[in-house]
Amino acid sequence: MLRIHFTGADLAGVRMAARPDVLWETVLSFHRLRDRRGALVYGEWRAQTRTRLNGETRLLGALVPARGYFPDFLTPPEGLHGLDPALEALRATPQERMGAELELLAAERPAAAPLPSWTAGLGEGRPESFSRLLGALRGYHRAAIEPYWTYIQSRVEADRAVRGRALLDGGAEELLASLPPMLRWRAPVLEADYPVDRDLHLDGRGLLLQPSYFCRGSAVTYRDPGLPPVLVYPVTHTDAPAAHAEPDGSLGRLVGHTRSAVLKAIGHGGTTSELARRAGVSLASASQHAGVLRDAGLVVTLRQGSSVLHTLTPLGAALLHGGARPEVRERPRRRGYARNGPVTS
Prior knowledge:
alpha/beta; 11 strands; about 350 residues
């Protein structure tokens, strides 16, 4: 079990990640690729992804074992800003830290299966070793993540809407209590199902909550307690990931003032009753129109207690804003040793 200890300052510092983290999704999906469980959600994705891979799994498998620890430097905080900033941040990891994490990884491997020789070059700062690792990450991301990124974004945004509503209704404690069942808020401690027994004291630093499509079963956090605290947890799965495709004929049903009003009413999320009130239609009509919008790939629906919560997908938001998909571009923060990369167990 993982126990995360909060102070009052930590509760005030709880925050939700603004979007999926590209390297957390990449590394955690590599676990799902080798795991036969979760076939309903990941089975088709596995089959499609394997046809696009070209040797990346052998290289990544050296640093990301099927179970247990993988180095924190593989998932720097810059993963929230996109693949290029994330890989640049990984490349900038201090040699001392990278060497220490590789030593920890080597110590947890069986004696008969040492790390391959090329990984030593990472701790020594050799350009050819970094080129090999970054090339494998980029190639794997292109095969396993990029085709599904729009779908992953929609699932993470739907989860954010649920957590945001809990935060507005009851504050940080209600937000923590709303997390998936493998996480249990027992003030002032958040307990999590975890492979090992561990305590994490936030000590006033707050906590970043990072929903993830490819996280499964248990939450994940940094091994190094000195890194900025982050907790990666699974989103609620309702179906399998779909590769991005151009809108098909189902969008042709989106005609008429009422349905447009319902799409606009969804905005940043709402229950069916709220949609009906905002759009000025009956509850049955709001439910029907939300169903059509969902079938067209414009809306995601998640159950929250006795009600359901509707949120826009990136495609729905683009349609609502005249085809433009506004993306917030943030300058990556300058990073030093204390802000570099995550820890997983």
